[in-house]
Each structure stands twice: as C-alpha cells, then as structure tokens.
Amino acid sequence: MTKPPSADDGGSPALFYEVLRKSLKKRKTNIETICPASDAVARRVLEDYGAIFLADKKVLPPPVCVFTSHEQVVQFQEKAGYTTEYIGYDEVELQPEAMKQLLKARAEAQKENLDITPRDGAEAARRSFEDSLQLWDTRFQPALDYWLAQGRLTEAEVARLRSLPLRSQIAEVLELEKSGIYFSKDLSKSILYSIAAPGTSQHIAMLAFDVTEFDNPRVREILAKHGWFQTVLSDLPHFTFLGLKEKDLPKHGLKQVEVDGQVFWIPNVPNSSANAQVINGQLR
Questions:
Q1: Strand pairing partners for 264?
Q2: Per-residue pLDDT tens for 34-67?
Q3: CB neighbour class for 268 (10 Å; exposed up to 12, middle 13-18, buried from 19)
Q4: Gap between the Cα atoms of 63 and 204, Å rounded
Q5: In Å, what is the CA distance from 133 to each residue of 80, 137, 179, 224, 235?
Q6: What is the average pLDDT across 187-216?
Q7: 113-142: string of b/e by CB count within 10 Å (b at 16+)?
C-alpha cells in the first residue's frame, strides 16, 4: 500500500473532532448526542473506533457510540438495512453499499488468483448485541482468572467485577488496564484492541468484515481501492468500510499509523489512548 498524501498535500491530517462535528451537523446530530463527554467509556470508544462515524453518505453510521440493548441494535440494523451473500460456504451480512464494494474487491482479487473470504464464518460480518456480549466474556472471564492467580486481583475484587452492571464493568476494566492489568487475549494490551466492548463493535453497524487473507499486502491494496481499511489497532483481520478514497482519509480526520508492517487509519486525536499504545511501530 503506497503512502497517501496528508490532508493538504504534505500537511498534517485534519483533527478528528473538528471533522466529526461538521459531519454530524450534516446528519442533524452532534457529538454530545452520539457520545456524551461525561461518558468516559463512550469517549474512549469514539477515539479508538471512531473512523466509522466518518463513513461515506451511502451507508448509515451508528447513532451512538455504545448500544445498550438488543432492541436498540435491532432497530438500528433494520433502519440501515443489510444484504446477505454467500462467500465461500459462509453467509455474511453487511449494509448494501459495503457488501457491493466487498464483492467488487473479491472479484478483482480473484482475477489475480487471490481471494477475500470471511474469517470465522458469519461472525466476520454482522453481529448482534448478544454476540458482542459473548465475545466480551471470552476475554473478560479468562483474564479475571489469570490476574487472580497472579495475585494482582483478590477473590473479592474478582467477584465484584463479575457482578457489576455491564457499563460499570467495562469502565472498571479500562481503569484496571491503566495499571497494567490487561484483558486482551494475550493479556498484553487493552481489551479494546482484542475485542470490542459490548454494544460498540463496528460489526453491529454492519460496516466491518474480518478477512482471512489480511496478511497479503495485495489483498489489503484491493480492499482499500474499494473503500475498506484497517481502523482498529492490533485487530489485523478487521477491515472497516468507509467508502472513501485512501488519499482523502487525512482530510477526514484520520491519520496513518503503521504497526508491524500494516497500515491503520485511526482518529487524529492528540494524546489519545490509541496514540499512546503505539511505540516505534509496535503496540505496547
């Protein structure tokens, strides 16, 4: 993937929050509505996963940073609409424009004897609120057991964390990670770079697709040509449909970060947690 120009042909990328305010105004909403400043979890999600809110007008970004119920997710997914296609042996569902461009990318890849296929089946695309809960527990529960065994958490602390309401549980996990008690699969980084907090996944918005062939540079180039980009640090198979040209991403408030040889486009927010996680091209 060639390095694209920045926001003004050599300048710095635009600031994410400035671009987002303008974008949301066109949609007759604002940052406080989708992601209140008083909600630390929602703001963290916005700064880590927020590229999706700048997607092309042909798709519908989520109305909030954090969905809080099954009903809320169903209502959004019905409003956005989605199409179903079989890719290989797997049935996947995405918003119509996202699916259209994915199929175009796949056809182009196949002409070069490559392919673009879903990683882990149908779960690679649309997910439900319950799916996000189940995936959260695949990281949260084992991490609690590990840190208990390491003596970093007490039995009383573990029991309390397990009993917390979901939103409070997420907030406490993110707070614990500040002291090095991480909840990712490998216990080395934030859980948000391993799995989305419940109700925050771009898969719920049906604008994300996990790609089996993510490590092939040519596949990544083809996906980018059709508006699909890596936007979640460390989640290597995960691609987000923005429907934008790569050269235009800086002026949309996204900046290019290279980690382990792969390019991610993340919100340009100075001093954000995402920026702090990257040191010399690697996630700490």
A1: 257
A2: 999 999 999 999 999 999 999 999 999 999 999 9
A3: buried
A4: 12
A5: 22, 6, 24, 30, 18
A6: 94
A7: eeebbbbeeebbbbbebebbeebbeebbee
Distance CA 244, CA 230 (A): 13
Output the pLDDT for position 260.
Answer: 81
Q: Is the pLDDT of residue 129 over 80?
A: yes
CB 171 within 8 A of CB 40: yes
Pull the structure tokens for residue 225: 């040509």
Question: Amino acid identity, residue 185?
Answer: K
Distance in angstroms (rounded) separating the CA atoms of residues 149 and 108: 50
Q: Are 243 and 230 within 8 A, CB to CB? A: no
Dist. CA 22–CA 27, nearest whole Å: 9
| Cα 36 from chain centre | 19
Minimal CA–CA distance to 212: which of 126, 116, 108? 116
pLDDT of residue 113: 98
Contacts (Cβ under 8 Å, ≥6 apart) of 212: 116, 117, 118, 119, 237
Which single residue is written with the structure tokens 């936007």? 231
- Whole-angstrom distance, CA of residue 49 vs CA of residue 152: 29
Please say whether the beta carbons of 65 and 58 come within 8 A.
Answer: no
